Amino acid sequence: MLPNNHNRGEQTKRRTFPQLLAIARHNPFMISRWVLRWAVVGTVSGLFAGLYWTFLEFITHQLERFQGFTLLWVMPVSGLIIGLVIYFLGNPGEIAVIVDNIHFRGGRLDIRKNPSMILASLVSISAGGSAGPEAPLVQVTGSFGTWVADRLRLDGEDLRSMSLAGMAAGFTALFGAPLGGAMFALEILHHQHILEYYEALMPAIVASCASYLVFAAITHLGIAPAWHFPQYHLQNIDDFALAIVFGMVGAVTAWLFISIFRGCAYVFSRIPGPIYVHTTLAGLGLGILATLLPLTRYFGDKQLDLVVSNNFSVAFLFAIAIGKIAAISITVTGGWRGGFIIPLFFTGACVGKAVAILIPGMNPTLAMICTMAAVNAAVTRTPVSTTLLLSKLTNFGPLTPILFASLIGFFLAPKIPLIESQLKSHEQATHS
User: Fold this and answer.
1) Quick check: helix, strand or coil at residue 339?
2) 3: helix, strand or coil
3) Rounded distance, CA 204 to CA 179, Å?
4) DSSP letters of 32-97?
5) Would you state the pLDDT for residue 158?
6) CDD domains of this UniProt entry (predicted)?
């Protein structure tokens, strides 16, 4: 459903989107008003994302100068700061909490968690944690959508749609793909590809487009492809079979990632003490990994191009992939803040290229992108939006091989998703 008008205490009948379109033929200002509101949410979200990214780049430039053994103290100190921020300002949660709020709190995201999320994520990402900015961006922009809905006195699906519009704007700002970002915000809510909140698709797309324009104007990012893969042209039907094969490779990688992730979560759950003890220990682990395997530091946005352009050995690529899986797991389960979508893409690229080297005549671009798609789709359960995002981020023209790989990763994923709140249905939410 689209937002209702509750002004002056009147109870307005809830209408479907086709009904609103019919009414709009006689009263176009009704749709125009809602489009304007969605655009405002997207514009403010894009402005925040642009400022956040600019400040993040500045801090990262200062901290990336630390290399080698200095990371053995820089990373733990960073972890201590992150833990103290969370300890005193409150735990902002992660993507799983956001998904849970969409299901069970009527789509209400708490704006009071933003200071903790912003500060903790800025330190986490700039210091070199293997988690990206998608989680903080989605939390802040989604909660802004909730705030706007509260000002407009919206509730129910209307409020939820406004929050989802903000979330979509946050995803889009990072990935530079309005349609992919909008779809991702809706698709990540469930472990099956059921767009239960389809009524929020139009608000999400409008907000995403506005956010994309503002973010691109501020940062000059998102216009060109994020990563520079060699050109690929679909000319042989056998490539679809290869896409399926690399979808299987990505699914196996996702199973390994989920196993290691859950193992790290168990270990940290057994460690006593406040959150800053966990984050400091996580910082030490990340510092050791970054000292031994420097490419595992940071969330992989810039490092992925190095994997694409350099002739690394198979052994090194597999070592980087395993190290990255460990780094992502330690980062997230150890209390550092950020998302794991781009780190998963990086992991998939390493595995895909390693396998492609082992197969004579294999196109490395096809192998890497299909493995990237399958890994992310298997972990996040988002095959459609993953296809759209990767097509934009890599400038990979043919959508079909990516979609085949994404679907294979999705269908071969573990029964219990990593984000367990994806299992909770809208029907459960309405009865809770």
Assistant:
1) strand
2) coil
3) 9
4) HHHHHHHHHHHHHHHHHHHHHHHHHHHHHHHHTT--GGGHHHHHHHHHHHHHHHHHHH-----HHH
5) 84
6) Voltage_gated_ClC
Scored b (16 or more CB within 10 A) or e, 204-242 reads bbbbbbbbbbbbbebbebbeeebbebeebeeeeeebeeb
Can you read off the two tokens belonging to residue 162? 């406004």
The pTM score is 0.89
What are the residue ranges of helices labelled H in 220-237?
none
CA 342, CA 344: separation in Å to the nearest integer? 5
Calpha distance 317→320 (Å, rounded): 5
Pair of tokens at residue 323:
């190290």
CA distance 371 to 346: 10
> What tens digit of pLDDT does each residue of 259-304 get?
999 999 999 999 999 999 999 999 999 999 999 999 999 999 999 9
Q: 394: number of CA atoms within 13 Å, CB side?
A: 30
Q: Rounded CA gap, 212 and 373, in Å?
A: 22
- Return d(Cα 19, Cα 344) in angstroms, integer: 41
Query: HSE of 89 in the Cβ direction (CA atoms, 13 Å)?
Result: 19
Q: Using an 8 Å Cβ cutoff, are 413 and 379 in contact?
A: yes
Q: What type of residue sits at position 218?
A: I
DSSP letters spanning 143-180: HHHHHHHHHTT--HHHHHHHHHHHHHHHHHHHH--HHH
From the list 240, 246, 230, 238, the residue with the least C-alpha distance to 396 is 230
Q: What are the backbone angles phi and psi of residue 85, rounded to the nearest 5°?
A: -60, -50
Each as own residue / partner, the long-range contacts of residues 288-291 (CB below 8 Å, 24 or more positions apart, any chain) are: 288/72, 289/323, 289/326, 289/327, 289/330, 290/71, 290/75, 290/128, 290/327, 291/68, 291/69, 291/71, 291/72
Beta bridge partners of 25: none
Give tens-digit pLDDT for 34-44: 889 999 999 99
Distances (CA, A) of 135 to 307, 338, 340: 24, 5, 8
The total of other beta-carbon atoms located within 10 Å of residue 359's CB is 12
